[in-house]
Design goal:
Layout: H1 2-12, H2 16-39, E1 43-45, H3 50-66, H4 71-91, E2 95-97, H5 102-107, H6 112-120, H7 123-139
Antiparallel strand pairs: 1-2
């Protein structure tokens, strides 16, 4: 456990501008996805501020831990992280899945949470790639 904490501390010690950029991108992404999920009646957060807890306080640190790994490893570890988040969100009823939504119709109601986790696990490799590109564009250095 101690070796993990040392490894994680090293990965989380990054430029504050990089953290700020992650927070801006992920917050915007989270608000957009919550709006989209509500508009097409797939799923939504119970409260808007859950975007902060999920996207910034949960997903940003995980993204920082995974950012130097290959795409497949980021996706695999991200899948574990998103399975835990999706399971907790629906078990605690802090997330709401609309009944008979389009994903239920296509994949079946029993596969809804798994499908959501598989989709949102892509956030980690895609988010790291996108934030890395923006950071390089804005600050002319690699993150």
């Amino acid at each position: 456990m101690n070796s993990f904490l040392i490894w994680a501390k090293d990965k989380l010690q990054v430029d504050k501008r990089l953290i700020a950029l992650y927070c801006i991108v992920y917050f915007s992404w989270g608000m957009a996805m919550d709006w989209f999920g509500t508009q097409v009646e797939i799923a939504r957060f119970t409260y808007w501020w859950q975007v902060i807890t999920c996207y910034i306080l949960y997903m940003v640190p995980i993204s920082l831990l995974l950012r130097k790994l290959p795409f497949h490893a980021q996706y695999a570890y991200g899948l574990i992280a998103m399975c835990l988040l999706e399971f907790a969100g629906y078990a605690l009823e802090s997330s709401y899945a609309y009944p008979d939504n389009v994903l239920d119709k296509v994949f079946g109601i029993r596969n809804f949470s798994l499908g959501m986790a598989m989709f949102f696990a892509l956030y980690f490799p895609l988010g790291n790639w996108g934030v890395g590109r923006l950071y390089h564009l804005f600050f002319k250095i690699d993150p």
